[in-house]
Amino acid sequence: MDAPRPERLTDAALADALRRGGLRLTRPRRAVHAALRDLGGHRSADEVHAALAAAGTRVSRMTVYNALADLLRAGVVQRADAGPGRALFEAGAAWHHHLLCRTCGGIEDVPCVRGRRPCLSLPAAFGRAEEAQVIFRGVCRRCLEGERRKRR
Amino acid sequence: MDAPRPERLTDAALADALRRGGLRLTRPRRAVHAALRDLGGHRSADEVHAALAAAGTRVSRMTVYNALADLLRAGVVQRADAGPGRALFEAGAAWHHHLLCRTCGGIEDVPCVRGRRPCLSLPAAFGRAEEAQVIFRGVCRRCLEGERRKRR
DNA sequence: TTGTTGATTGGACAATGTCCAATATACCGC
DNA sequence: GCGGTATATTGGACATTGTCCAATCAACAA
CA-CA-CA-CA torsion for A52, A56, A61, A65, nearest 10 degrees? Predict the structure, then answer.
């Protein structure tokens, strides 16, 4: 149940991923990617911005938003669907889903049985699905064990 | 592919659903439910608020937010997961999923093969899933046909 | 090294959702 | 039907999130 460690991209690999989309490897983009990877888990743009500021890296808020969108297009960052509200990002490229715990409010990664998109098919009558993100809502393992312990 | 028409709840049925959760049937709650049902599709709280205002029904914005949350708990309204941003609601209780079209930006309902929650199971090692919402991203039928027509 | 093109900056702005105390109303028992 | 009481509504202030813009800066190809 440990969070999968996001792979550590070399600068060259990051530059490659960006350039495939006609994007440059800039200092802010490198910093945003590293911050997201080092923070781990599911983070909002402003969390990344705050982490960079705390580390003494001055980057404008707009740039963080832009960089995350660019890294997303480049495929080295993913958006974690977790319902409405602010957008959450995470480093890494492995396709997976999420469990939202209604007890602790946490988000757990759930590996995708297929591991690549789209993992579920859509009846052709509706159109073409390029990806299928599943949001499980319920109670995470940790909280479930907490409940059980209390009940005794 | 027509949108399923949301069932028309009688006041008694609506009151029943609310009271099961210790909630009262109030004029604003009735108005919000009717507005959402009559608008059809996937609507934000402020869209419902605007529709009510346009129809001459004065209800405070806060009340619309509260009413939608209450109707959601009562099970007569659902939240349509459509990624980050504002929350979208729709009338009705039948469990289903959504296809987000990246061409036109629209949201299509996709019936759930099981029709009730949870339609997908979660490996027990992760916890208990009470519901599983699938977000398909791709191209809707209408846009797919548009593409095909242009290519000729 | 230099020029060109794309990226960053920072401030202003819009949209969405939440908090609060005062007031109004649904609904229970009579 | 008539209160009494717990619940709901109100409206304004506020926080958070994300976007827009023109001026400046920097990546990278030649």
Answer: -30
Last residue of a domain, one of B50, B72, B92: B92
On whether both A9 and A46 belong to a single domain, the answer is yes
User: Mind listing the pLDDT tens digit for each residue in A59-105?
Assistant: 999 999 999 999 999 999 999 999 999 999 999 999 999 999 999 89
At which of B76, B92, B108 does a domain end?
B92
Please tell me the distance from the alpha carbon of residue B150 to that of residue B16, in angstroms, as a whole number.
Answer: 52
CB contact under 8 A, A141 and B118: no
SS3 state at B29: helix
Hey, which residues 41-70 in chain B have their CB within 8 Å of chain A?
none
3-class SS at A111?
strand
CB spacing of B127 vs A85 below 8 angstroms? no
> What range defines the domain where residue A2 resides?
1-93
pTM to 2 decimal places: 0.89
Q: Name the closest residue on chain A to residue B146, using Cα atoms.
A: A127
Question: Is nucleic acid strand C under 7 Å from A59's C-beta?
Answer: yes
Domain count for chain A = 2
